[in-house]
């Protein structure tokens, strides 16, 4: 079998950086990415047959574990009837109804094929609905790679130190105002100055693209109030948190109702899917009803809908999130306990099946500035130690991690044991 080293060298000749999405190239941690052959439940298997306990879960979608039998069955059965029609199918309405039921702030929803499309379309819709150009986003939050949103972004652009991408016209970027996550006083000043020109605020209700930063008490409520006062649209980007931190997403977790919500990842069960939805009055501005244009050849793809619906069935089971949260808590407590034993300062944070670990002496991390001060070099050593021993973590100190329902107590115990050994090697 080919090694990852050979495969990576080969890929780099024909794919920029050898990868189809930058963080996969391991630039954030150094070394060579592992090439995956297959996955099942909580495990990944690389092309050399080595098994890893996976805490990336395809960056979030695999909340029920890899290749879940019910999801694979739904995909196979649907695929046999044809892969794409470019015409309406009943499954799309079933999906839309499910989303509206599970997330009550969504009265109408449109399916797209990625999180990027969802946020890009939601921004256009907010601009079309309000007739305003300016948008507010937060430093370190990532909302996909649409031009307006690649300003002081998180995720790969943060990992690579490119928060303002080349190729984004300054004339467009000037409409994006960036604020500090969790700083309501600063945002209030921004609204005093430009409030009547601001089409929307887009926010990750839990910031998962600069590791894991939870909103401080009152922050999300404050965004809601400012949007109400100035007639701006509040967009919760729940591409990561949706169906991940709770069945109703972060908006259910914190009890705040946004005007628009963007979804992705879990909703496609691993197939390429995104969605944006919200208030009927706003959603009715989209073509063909209204004048905001948005479309997609593969949008609402039947196989993707089938994978997503099968996943939504699994996660709607009673106690799914209680159990998922308990697993994540067990992992976080285990890591902390072993870190204390090894005298390694470590902070953890989590909600539902999503978590963050920080190599820091700080007692809490609430801002982009604070996360930037964490020990990235120590994370790199930790990452490689874990990888070597068969635990796959996100290859960046600025990404959240994910636990699935397929992780067993034994997997978590094994992870913690491995972490103890790796902590002992950290300088
Ligand atoms: N929004 C958030 C909060 C995300 O985490 C991501 C991807 N990690 C996106 C949008 C973009 O989604 P996609 O990669 O599917 O385009």
From TrEMBL:
Q: Which GO terms describe its cellular component?
A: cytoplasm
Cite the EC number.
Answer: 5.4.3.8
Q: What class of enzyme is it?
A: isomerase
Query: Which Gene Ontology terms cover its molecular function?
Result: glutamate-1-semialdehyde 2,1-aminomutase activity; pyridoxal phosphate binding; transaminase activity
Query: Which reaction is recorded as catalysed by this protein?
Result: (S)-4-amino-5-oxopentanoate = 5-aminolevulinate
Q: Which UniProt keywords apply?
A: Cytoplasm, Isomerase, Porphyrin biosynthesis, Pyridoxal phosphate
**Alphabetical GO biological process terms:** protoporphyrinogen IX biosynthetic process
Cell compartments where the protein resides:
Cytoplasm
The annotated pathway is:
Porphyrin-containing compound metabolism; protoporphyrin-IX biosynthesis; 5-aminolevulinate from L-glutamyl-tRNA(Glu): step 2/2
Q: Which residues carry this modification: N6-(pyridoxal phosphate)lysine?
A: 265
Q: Which Pfam families match?
A: Aminotran_3
Q: In which domain of life is the source organism classified? A: Bacteria
**Which coenzymes or cofactors are required?**
pyridoxal 5'-phosphate
Q: Where is the signal peptide?
A: none
Specify where it is mainly localized.
cytoplasm
Subunit structure, per the record?
Homodimer.
Similarity field: Belongs to the class-III pyridoxal-phosphate-dependent aminotransferase family. HemL subfamily.
Q: What HAMAP family does this protein's entry cite?
A: HemL_aminotrans_3 (MF_00375)
Protein name listed in UniProt: Glutamate-1-semialdehyde 2,1-aminomutase
Q: Which organism is it from?
A: Beggiatoa alba B18LD
């Amino acid at each position: 079998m080919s090694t990852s080293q050979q495969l990576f060298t080969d890929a780099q000749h024909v794919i920029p950086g050898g990868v189809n999405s930058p963080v996969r190239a391991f630039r954030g941690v150094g070394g060579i990415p592992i090439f995956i052959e297959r996955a099942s439940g909580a495990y990944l298997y690389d092309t050399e047959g080595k098994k890893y306990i996976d805490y990336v879960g395809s960056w979030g979608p695999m909340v029920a574990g890899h290749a879940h039998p019910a999801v694979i069955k739904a995909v196979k059965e649907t695929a046999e009837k044809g892969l794409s029609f470019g015409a309406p199918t009943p499954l799309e309405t079933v999906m839309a109804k499910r989303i509206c039921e599970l997330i009550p702030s969504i009265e109408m929803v449109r399916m797209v094929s990625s999180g990027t499309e969802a946020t890009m379309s939601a921004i256009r819709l907010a601009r079309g609905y309000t007739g305003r150009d300016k948008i507010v986003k937060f430093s370190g939050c990532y909302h996909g790679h649409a031009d307006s949103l690649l300003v002081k972004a998180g995720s790969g652009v943060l990992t690579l130190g490119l928060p303002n991408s080349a190729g984004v016209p300054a004339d467009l970027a000037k409409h994006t105002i960036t604020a500090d996550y969790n700083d309501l006083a600063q945002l209030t000043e921004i609204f005093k100055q430009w409030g009547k020109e601001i089409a929307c605020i887009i926010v990750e209700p839990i910031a998962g693209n600069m590791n894991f930063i939870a909103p401080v008490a009152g922050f999300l409520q404050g965004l809601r109030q400012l949007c109400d006062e100035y007639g701006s649209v509040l967009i919760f980007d729940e591409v990561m948190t949706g169906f991940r931190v709770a069945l109703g997403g972060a908006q259910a977790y914190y009890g705040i109702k946004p005007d628009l919500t963007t979804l992705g990842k879990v909703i496609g069960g691993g197939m390429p899917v995104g969605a944006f939805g919200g208030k009927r009055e706003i959603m009715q501005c989209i073509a063909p009803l209204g004048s905001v244009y948005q479309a997609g050849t593969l949008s609402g793809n039947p196989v993707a809908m089938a994978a997503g619906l099968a996943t939504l069935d699994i996660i709607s089971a009673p106690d799914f999130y209680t159990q998922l949260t308990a697993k994540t808590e067990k992992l976080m407590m285990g890591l902390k306990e072993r870190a204390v034993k090894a005298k390694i300062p470590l902070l953890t944070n989590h909600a539902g099946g999503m978590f963050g670990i920080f190599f820091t002496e700080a007692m809490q991390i609430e801002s982009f500035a604070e996360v930037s001060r964490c020990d990235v070099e120590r994370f790199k050593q930790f990452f490689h130690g874990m990888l070597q021993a068969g635990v796959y973590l996100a290859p960046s100190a600025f990404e959240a991690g994910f636990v699935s329902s397929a992780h067993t107590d034994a997997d978590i115990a094994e992870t913690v044991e491995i972490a103890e050994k790796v902590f002992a090697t950290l300088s």
